[in-house]
Amino acid sequence: MTIEVSSLRKEFSSPSGTITAVDGIDFSIDEGDFFTFVGPSGCGKTTTLRCIAGLETPTSGSIRFDGEDMTGKPAHKRNLAMMFQNIALYPHMKVKENISYPLKVRNVPKQERYENAEEAADIMQIRELLEKYPGELSGGQQQRAALARTIVHEPEAFLMDEPLSDLDAKLKVEIRKEIQRVHDRVEKPTIYVTHDQEEAMTMSDRIAVFNDGGIEQIGTPDELYQRPTNRFVANFIGNPSMNFFDGTVDRASGETVVVSVDGRDVELRVVDSTAVGVGDEVTVGVRPEDVRLDRNDGDLEGEITLIERIGKQMLATIEGPQGEVRVTLPADNAYEKGEVIRLSIETRATHLFDSGSNDVVTRGPDV
Ligand code: ADP
Ligand code: MG
């Protein structure tokens, strides 16, 4: 199945006036796509998903499944599987009854229901739990049962709204893999909602970055990381975040742009210097892995105020006149907190944003 969303808008009325939760968005999802909505809390992800599910009525715009307009089609006729943050297995039902519940709603005879539940349980490797009650299961087993329930009725698409946010870090990784395994196996579109960019980046074929009821950019994880179209996406995608320096264009010609940052000239290589003019207010964006530290050489200066480990990476925070800069360090570095140090940026790997619109104007050839 394909899902096409066009000019979707959803307003809610509240005592304090109208809230525009979704402000005219467009996207389409192909058969077999793992498509993620990512963005901060309150930006309209859940409302969009609920419109697709048929749990909310759009104010305007259209939703099509395989070209067919879903307007007026109730949720239970859309043949979707849904999984939300709270697992909500029915506590008084055995696991096999829980898993087969979507079939019961569709009046499938008991024998057939239980056979399908066994198959789904086999896929999730929880067959031995079928006769137990949810209260007898661990958190991870409950999540597996909930996943088994989503696949039991062979849905046309999967809608998942922050299904992992209540789990501890280890279990998150385990269930993430299970969700991907199910997705690869059934080859149906999955829409996955999360506020966690890292989760989005590791799981998705394509990602829509939501902000304030709109979509800032849609792309593959690589496209969003390497070619963010505006500062919001540049800042939101990637951990640690991109560094930003505000400055003014001093010179732009050929493939060179010189930006004055805090009174110092920073010379950048860009693919299109005609995109900026002398005097333009711009923001230079550079990822922490594209900044170098050195005790002697570098355009900018600052003091190391923090050295920390994030996953496999060592990260230094440098404070200086240009603001706070985060820099990825080699694992065997000998820097220490409190050192005054020089910084140089990889001038071929920068992004240049218009300071007014925050849209990207040009970027270096190596990003
Ligand atoms: P997200 O899932 O990205 O956190 P939501 O879609 O839940 O965001 O919410 C988007 C906006 O719509 C928020 O401002 C939220 O308060 C508002 N909203 C969501 N549901 C309702 C509702 N039923 N009534 C009024 N406002 C709502
Ligand atoms: Mg939400």
From TrEMBL:
It is found in: Cell membrane. One of its GO terms (cellular component) is ATP-binding cassette (ABC) transporter complex, substrate-binding subunit-containing. Residues 3-237 form the ABC transporter domain. Its EC number is 7.5.2.13. Keywords: ATP-binding, Cell membrane, Membrane, Nucleotide-binding, Translocase, Transport. PROSITE patterns: ABC_TRANSPORTER_1 (PS00211), ABC_TRANSPORTER_2 (PS50893). Signal peptide: none annotated. It holds the Pfam family ABC_tran. The keyword Electron transport does not apply. The complex is composed of two ATP-binding proteins (XacJ and XacK), two transmembrane proteins (XacH and XacI) and a solute-binding protein (XacG). Part of the ABC transporter complex XacGHIJK involved in the uptake of xylose and arabinose. Responsible for energy coupling to the transport system. Belongs to the ABC transporter superfamily. Carbohydrate uptake transporter-1 (CUT1) (TC 3.A.1.1) family. This is ABC-type D-xylose/L-arabinose transporter.
